[in-house]
């Protein structure tokens, strides 16, 4: 028996890959040719389904399946359609495709929801193109600084956001004026299906997951450990101010803190993503006097982030006293965690039970447009789809069977969610 939703999904994923192929993966630059092609493909499918279609001044694509009462707040579902350079075909796009696949199934079954279902194709989520978190969703809500169009430059072209928006037929003046096309008070709920970007679902053999929350983060991008350069053969251990050993000491302390949090069942991930000495200063016969490094601390528990930050302060003082090395973390870049709506999560879990699909609950370590919606008080939920080999790389491997399982969960829950 034909499945209107899966037929649409298979055709869309093939069309998206073909339109944005950039071997060895795909590239869909924000406000660029690949993103433009993806939006055109989504629009064409929406037209074929007979959905109501409009595009706002910043390029957000709204594709609406009318509900029984057009006066009720609409239920929104979707994600972004840009992708990193030479990335995979499913990150972001799977959420838009699933929204349209759900609309196709509802149409085919003759089901009319109590309220409108609007599928969103959001612009510019991937920060690799413009240095602004969730640029597209924040622009639609009127949250960007007014100077953003003129100061943000795309990393590949070095041209401004305003130039790229104008080239694509959109209006940077909308952002400058602080205008908005989305109003949190006029949204019933927001659902964002998305591939899982880690190995958890593959390792556990589960096709889908209900997301409990999106991890907030504290990032330090310019940390330094400053000791003293010295002769490697002439200075004994207790007279050294070795910056490498100081950073290693800090790293091991942070890992012990992480293990303790895990043992207590608390959510935490810690990463020292960059760590290096200055090659112009360093040599094999020199005690390293300075190390620069980064820190990325994430948790869906705000209290956990506060505890980690306090630990950093204590460790800097201890290391200075014990090793004579000054630790400076530099500017803090905080992003608050976003807890997913308990009622929506419960509805999705009941939908999974009705559909006979095994799911687990888990936090999202990566950020998503859902964080923008949740941060504004919109009831928000995410549904993860199993995906092998991570994301932001050409090897993304979401199976259509897992997409179908997640779609079954969503279809089984949508009546309750829309009620």
Automatic annotation (TrEMBL):
InterPro entries: Amidase_Cbmase (IPR010158), Bact_exopeptidase_dim_dom (IPR036264), Peptidase_M20 (IPR002933). GO terms for molecular function: hydrolase activity. It comes from the Bacteria. Its cofactor is Mn(2+). Keywords: Hydrolase, Manganese, Metal-binding. It holds the Pfam family Peptidase_M20. Belongs to the peptidase M20 family. Homodimer. This is Zn-dependent hydrolase. It comes from Siccirubricoccus soli.
